[in-house]
Amino acid sequence: MKQPLTGILPVAPTPFFEDGRVDEEGMKRVLDCMIDQGVDAICILANYSEQFVLSDEERATLTRLSLEHVAGRVPVIVTISHFANQITVARAVEAQALGAAMVMMMPPYHGVGLVPPEHAVFGQFKAVSDAIDIPIMVQDAPLSGVTLSVPLLVRMAREIENVSYFKMETPFAADKLAALIEQGGEHILGPFDGEEAVTLLADLDAGCTGTMTSALQPEKIRPILVNYRAGNVAAALDQWRLCLPLINHENRQCGLRAAKTVMMEGGVIKSDHVRAPLQPLSPRTKERLLQLSRELDVIALKWGK
Asked: What's the Cα-to-Cα distance from 12 to each of 26, 101, 155, 273, rounded to whole Å?
């Protein structure tokens, strides 16, 4: 990428048939819908893609399918998180070979009894960077259970060539983003937030240049970023107020199921099935989700109709 990646980089959900099989044609429709939503890039195989319920074979299939189908229309970010350095490196090499613009990874994790020391976290990111020449986004998420201190993140940005993007999803993300940007300076190329943009306004105040949301309403959230970065904070705030009820309902009540349910309702995919032990939305939660989505007239709710 000649210019730093900014804007909205949503996570693509992985569609399944009702029997749990991956819906490959549905995956293509998800990607096409997201491009029509006006996204700046697409992230695949992330937590909101249910990466933790996919087999290695399914991951490989989805990586190739997604990159071939998007075919350069927007940049694609491939999530490669794994506990083992060797597997993480192999995933990174494969992603780059297939045309990924960036890879994203959490620190190595496998439960609280296997939290690696800082030098091992640094080592995994260094091993990946040595094997590829595309940017790496560090995903700092509570899911990993690994604490990534600001000094460690700054050191990684300064000393590991391709580590230059950061997705902050920890509590008090804005303060951590501000500290990272201040201490890392020119080495922090892409400070992003996540968590469905539930903290976006504070994170923009702290200096973030983009957000990685779900695929539920990127066309509604993107104007917040555009207006804020153009100096039109009042317009950004107005749009934030408009989007916040749906953002909050997704973040606090629905999680990764929200985008799939709305996309099914909108004819993008055939099913909003999630693999066990994940459970479907309750009728009550689903009804409110669809009501809020209709009020905003989101693209995903009508794209396939």
From this structure: 11, 15, 30, 15
> Is 235 inside any structural domain?
no
**Segment 228-267, tens digit of pLDDT:** 999 999 999 999 999 999 999 999 999 999 999 999 999 9
Catalytic positions: 167
- The answer to whether residue 39 is domain-embedded is yes
Q: Pick from 49, 47, 38: which is nearest to 9 by CA?
A: 38
End-to-end CA distance of the chain: 35
The vertex-1 CA angle with 180 and 167, nearest 5°, equals 30
At 173-219, the pLDDT tens digits run 999 999 999 999 999 999 999 999 999 999 999 999 999 999 999 99
pTM exceeding the 0.85 threshold for the entire prediction: yes
Domain around 80: 7-230
Task: Examine residue 282 and state whether it is found in any structural domain, yes or no.
Answer: no
| Total domain count, the chain | 1
Whole-Å CA distances, 87 to 83, 108, 127: 8, 11, 11
